[in-house]
């Protein structure tokens, strides 16, 4: 028989005679080390018992079978010391061939019984310690199984949370993409608004210029009207003067030359006014 550590909390008990391998789990690496130490102690004690000159081979066999039954994961409890090694030293069974063919000499039976009793007592103590170690390992294994179940539940809950977070992250990515698209659209709208503002400012400036030109044209038209009114008044006066001069010409021939000179002067003024009116009319057309 041999015991091998396979990891920090697990080991293998190999029974070569039964061609069986038992897997053992422990709550911690310390419990695994304690069990391995106890196993080596029991194995060494069994070997010492097996190779003593006057000891019985069935003692080692019974101890090995008791240890194997105690470590088997199919067993509900370890074997009791009496089940492993017998109730009394005198009741230890011998192999069939030795019980029928060879018996210890009568003069050495007392000595052999005392030695067997001492060895059985030592093996019972070791078996009790091993039983306690197995019970501790079983309880640690159950606690480890409960802890594993709890961890599994926590892992499932964490996986559910991770899936939820992944779903939220995907939704957030979609929102970010939508926000980026809206931001680009907003920037395009802002650029268009800026262009419209520039166009509006240019149109406002042109409107102000046109308004000023209209006001200036209205002022020029007003001046033209005033000039035309003055020209009309001058024409009326000229007509009156002509009539008066005609009458005076008939009365005084001497005053005719003077009146003709006045009329020539008046005609020149009228021509200048007409030219001025034409100029104002051209300016108004611009």
Descriptive account of the structure:
Residues 1-46 form the WH1 domain. The protein has 286 residues and is mainly alpha-helical. The chain has two domains: 2-93 and 107-153, no CATH class; 216-285. It has six helices and three strands, in the order E-E-E-H-H-H-H-H-H. It has a three-stranded antiparallel sheet, with helices on one face. Strand 1 (2-5) and strand 2 (10-15) form a beta hairpin. The radius of gyration is 67 Å and the shape is rod-shaped.
The description of the largest β-sheet is:
3 strands, antiparallel
Write down the secondary-structure element order. EEEHHHHHH
What is the C-alpha radius of gyration, as a whole number of Å?
Answer: 67 Å
> Would you tell me the overall average pLDDT?
73
The share of residues in extended strands comes to 5-15%
N- to C-terminal separation?
Answer: 126 Å
Structural class label = mainly alpha
What is the number of domains?
A: 2
InterPro entries: Homer, PH-like_dom_sf, WH1/EVH1_dom
Pfam families: WH1
GO molecular function, one term: G protein-coupled glutamate receptor binding
Region (Disordered): 65-110, 223-255
């Amino acid at each position: 028989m041999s015991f091998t550590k396979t990891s920090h909390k697990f080991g293998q008990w190999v029974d070569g005679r039964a061609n069986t391998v038992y897997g053992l789990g422990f709550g911690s690496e310390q419990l695994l080390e304690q069990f391995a130490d106890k196993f080596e102690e029991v194995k060494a004690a069994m070997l010492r018992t097996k190779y003593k000159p006057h000891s019985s081979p069935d003692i080692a066999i019974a101890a090995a079978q008791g240890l194997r039954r105690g470590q088997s994961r199919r067993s509900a409890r370890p074997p009791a010391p009496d089940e492993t090694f017998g109730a009394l030293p005198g009741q230890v069974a011998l192999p069939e061939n030795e019980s029928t063919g060879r018996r210890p000499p009568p003069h050495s039976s007392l000595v052999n019984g005392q030695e067997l009793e001492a060895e059985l007592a030592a093996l019972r103590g070791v078996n009790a310690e091993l039983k306690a170690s197995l019970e501790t390992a079983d309880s640690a294994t159950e606690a480890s199984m409960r802890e594993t179940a709890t961890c599994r539940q926590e892992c499932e809950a964490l996986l559910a949370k991770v899936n939820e977070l992944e779903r939220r992250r995907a939704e957030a990515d979609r929102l970010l993409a939508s926000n980026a698209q809206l931001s680009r659209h907003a920037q395009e709208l802002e650029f268009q608004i800026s262009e419209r503002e520039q166009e509006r400012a240019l149109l406002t400036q042109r409107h102000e210029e046109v308004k000023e030109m209209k006001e200036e044209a209205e002022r020029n038209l007003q001046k033209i009207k005033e000039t035309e009114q003055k020209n009309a008044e001058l024409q009326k006066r000229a007509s009156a003067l002509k009539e008066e001069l005609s009458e005076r010409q008939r009365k005084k021939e001497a005053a005719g030359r003077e009146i003709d000179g006045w009329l020539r002067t008046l005609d020149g003024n009228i021509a200048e006014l007409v030219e001025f009116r034409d100029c104002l009319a051209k300016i108004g057309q611009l």
